[in-house]
Amino acid sequence: MSLGLKRGIVQLEPHDKQWDEIALQTIKTLKSILGDDAIDIQHIGSTAIQAIKAKPIIDIAVGVTDFDRIMAHNEQLQQEGIFYRGSDVERQLLYVMGDMEKDTRTHHIHVVKWNGTDWKNYIHFRDYLNANENVALQYQKLKEELESKYADDRVTYTNGKQDMIDNILNCK
Known about the structure:
Layout: E1 5-6, H1 17-34, E2 40-44, E3 58-64, H2 67-71, H3 74-79, E4 83-86, E5 92-99, E6 104-113, H4 117-131, H5 133-150, H6 154-169
Parallel strand pairs: 3-6
Antiparallel strand pairs: 1-6, 2-3, 4-5, 5-6
């Protein structure tokens, strides 16, 4: 099993059932640290979609009502190898796991307002693609095309997926 990529690199791997097990273990760790400050924690992103290839980085969404209460856990999270990386995306806190010295990431943990737009989009996208394999495979095809062009440019790769993601999110 492959898990983790150097920051900025795009490399797709076939779906691996171990990703689900690793996500569940990470969710368990997060719940033990965050307690009631996290309303819900879910495995999201392409590693949570059974039919498609994904970058071997586990995405987790943590739904909260108060970002400050999560920030109060930063020291304990860091002791578990979960590092706060800021809020690059508006209305989200980003935590990462991996080998910080080698600039390799195994997990992206997105803290968002529970039941807010970001939370709903993460869950809907995952559930829609798991329920619609042909759309999931179209999404995979786009990802593969972008990977072949932008393997060293994750920002352009990610931006290249946005129109299709938006179309899928409009299929509510």
